[in-house]
Amino acid sequence: MVPTTHQEDEMQGKRKRALDSRGRPVTGLYVRDGRFIAGFKLDGRWTMRTLDAETLTDARREREGLLAGLREGRVAAPDAATFAEVFAEYQDARSLAARTRSHEQHLVNRHLADLKRRRVQDVTATELARLLRELRGRYSPWTCVAVYRILRGSFALALRRGIVTRSPIDGLAPSERPKQRNAKQIAVLNVETMKRLVEAGASERWGGALGLACYAGLRIGELRALRWRDLDLDADTLTVARSLLRDGTPKPPKTDAGIRTIPLLPALRRLLVAWRLRSPHTRPDDLVIATADGEPLQERNLRRALDSAKTTAKLDDTEERLSWHSLRHSFASMLATDLELPATTLARLTGHADAGFTLKVYARDGRDEATVVEDVLSRAAAAKVGG
Questions:
Q1: What share of the chain is helix, strand, coil (3-state, %, to 5)?
Q2: Dihedral over Cα of 246, 196, 218, 209: its sign
Q3: Residues in CB range of 44: below 8 A, 6 or more apart
Q4: pLDDT at 75
Q5: pLDDT the model gives residue 70
Q6: What number is the average pLDDT over the span 35-46?
Q7: Fold classified for 5-72
Q8: How many whole angstroms from its chain centre is CA 294?
Q9: Which of 103, 288, 311, 379 to pair with 171, CA 20 to 30 A apart?
Q10: Considering the domain 191-369 in this protein, what is its CATH number?
Q11: What are the residues facing 50 on neighbouring strands?
């Protein structure tokens, strides 16, 4: 890896050869503006790197350590990859909805514009800490967390690709990593409250929509994409095979687990039959929940319908956040606690490949402490455990 004297002279340019105490050139070391520079060959190409050393002895030692680190993979080889390039690869490595991809790009353009052209190898933990601190002073915790996740994911990919040997994210103190505090907890409704909310729907259409979220756990995009041919009233099943983006563009589920068949609970079946009798669009390819013209509903109209039902059901002053997604949480909680389904079945019906993730995120026991205690003790007595 050590170049010949001829090669050194050719590459020297405005740099001066470092000289030892006897005035002899030191192999692979140069000086410019009072800084030592190491020269060496890497993968057949001549490479220069500015050193931190302040003395010739330290410069020799640092150059030797650098070469050893490169050989052993402890030091990353020089790489010109910019943050924008690594971020693009980070997005391509994941299965993202068009809306998510666009939103992440917006966050990068707005909050990480100064970072986009920087070499990933040049970004430091100190720089990221300062950036995140400035964000916290101007934007919401949600925005700060979203930007932090992009940084963390992009640098993690750079680490996997060998562009860096250590992510600058690892140099952040816990207090420097943004957290989304004071956010409202997602409401999880019990069976009685779900029934009250569904019955508060302003029409058969909105009652059917609320029922699909509460009694089938459909995501809002899946609900908007559901067609009558996806229902089998004879077999009492509902099949989820697609979703709609906000602009109405159809898309397949993120994973194979998203394609699923859900049993039609009696309450949901009654709601859908009642709505079908009144709906002007009941052909197999027509949308179950649609506009008067049979077009996909806008998400804002679904949110308005839920707000209206919450007011009618006297649920609009709840301390927890009651949204369409929280109805999906309520469905999962009902399956886990009221129907006592195993975790694998719960994951299958909610469209998740990981049963542990489903239990962690969606299933929550909404019973009070006394009810849980009584339930556990009665089960223990019936099983003759701990008696």
A1: 50, 10, 35
A2: negative
A3: none
A4: 54
A5: 67
A6: 77
A7: Double Stranded RNA Binding Domain (3.30.160)
A8: 33
A9: 103
A10: 1.10.443.10
A11: 37
Tokens in use for 128? 């990221």
Backbone angles phi, psi at 180, to 5 degrees: -90, 90
pLDDT of residue 354: 75
Q: Structure tokens of 10? A: 């050719």
- Give the three-state DSSP class for 63: helix
269: three-class secondary structure by DSSP: helix
pLDDT attached to residue 270 = 94
- CATH 1.10.443.10 residue window(s) in the chain: 191-369
233-258 exposure pattern, b = at least 16 Cβ within 10 A, e = fewer: eeeeebebbbbbbeeeeeeebeeeeb
Tokens representing 76 are 């990353």
The reported pTM is: 0.60
pLDDT, position 48: 77
Model confidence at 383: pLDDT above 70: no
Superfamily designation of domain 83-176: Tyrosine recombinase, N-terminal domain (1.10.150.130)
185-242 pLDDT tens trace = 788 899 999 999 999 999 999 999 999 999 999 999 999 999 999 999 999 999 999 9
23-60: string of b/e by CB count within 10 Å (b at 16+)?
eebbbbbbbeeeebbbbbeeeeeeeebebebeebeebb
Which residue bears the tokens 């690594």? 86
255-301 per-position pLDDT tens digit = 777 899 999 999 999 999 999 999 999 999 999 999 999 999 999 99
Cβ partners under 8 Å of residue 220, min gap 6:
213, 299, 302, 324, 325
DSSP 321: B
